[in-house]
Amino acid sequence: MTQEFGTVVIGAGIGGGTVVESLRDAGYPASIALVGADPAAPYYRPDLSKKVMLEDSDPADSALRGEEWYAAHDVSTFFGTTVSSIDPAARTVTLDDGEQIRYGQAILATGSTPRTLGVPGEQLANVHTLRDVGDAVAIRSQFGKGKKVAVIGGGWIGLEVAAAARSHDCDVTVILHTDEPPLSSILGRELGQHFEDLHEKNAVTFLKQADTTSFAGSTAVEAVETSVGSVPADLVVIGIGADPTVETAASAGLKTDDGVLVDEHMRTSDGSILAIGDLANAQNILRGERLRIEHWDNAVRQAEVAASTITGGNRAYDWQPYFYTDQYDLGMEYVGRGSAGDEVVIRGDKSSGEFIVFWRRDGRVTAAMNVNVWDYGDELRALIGKEVSAERLGDEQVPVGEL
Predict the structure, then answer these.
(1) For a FRET experiment, which of 89, 142, 216, 238 has its CA 20 to 30 Å from that of 227?
(2) pTM, entire model
(3) Ranges in the chain, pLDDT < 50
């Protein structure tokens, strides 16, 4: 007999978990199913690189809710289960064991999938991407004094893994395929160089203009072979970005383009299906453009919008992108959406470790980042899109709240 639910949430990450909680908080009375490939209940994925690997913390400490919460709130959970197909006409979801469940509304929250290199030797033991708690625990288990760790890619995940590995006294090499500093495509060369200097100060080696051609080893990895030479490695972490996990949505006939296309209320091209988080290429009404953002803050906020949509509310995607990182003694928050070609204005002295950065284009602030300077989040967020001179932004005598 086919089980029937008012709402079926497909994807049990932080977005899926938050939408379930938001529905119940809003008094949603119908039954809910939460389906997720991860065998664990929803948890905060940023903790994987920022906490689990860094502090050797118990992954259970990062759970959004204990598993008992779901049963107590009439949420049927299908953890460790994937969805093989969705039939929008019949409003059914087929699970990997062939079972079908029926929905009134479905919410896709399947996130993104880390990219791989597709080179020989990638199947060797101790070659990892970082997606779930199992990956984080496996990577952490290989940390140790003198262990040789190769990180391929210089994005946020790669640099956070590098910092975590150094905290365990590993020898770390970050392999980049360009000659640019890490994060240059996001922050620009000057700030990218600041992050590179930070890692080099902490004894990380950068190997640039190096394309990974293969991994060497018998059963476990022993070296990364690159276009400029061999890098000894007991552990490899591949951090070259991720792609939205759209296969199920696309096969169901939903419109996709760098993710699943949704409106400002998170509805897809099928009115009975919504999508949120890394998966969603959503219409942002504040910025007047489509955005697909890979960050937990965005997933949580979009989950709340989706719950509002289902319960008859009118919340919409109307906020600026946000993300943060912690690496060594550097903590920062970034809001807005700048580009590498924007003018960079720095308030304060970078060498002090405490400063604020603004990005400007055509006279307007496109993004802001506070580095080890706190309590300015709302003020910085309010500046995005405003016309402010570079001189005023950089003048520490002008309070941030008066910019």
Answers:
(1) 142
(2) 0.94
(3) none
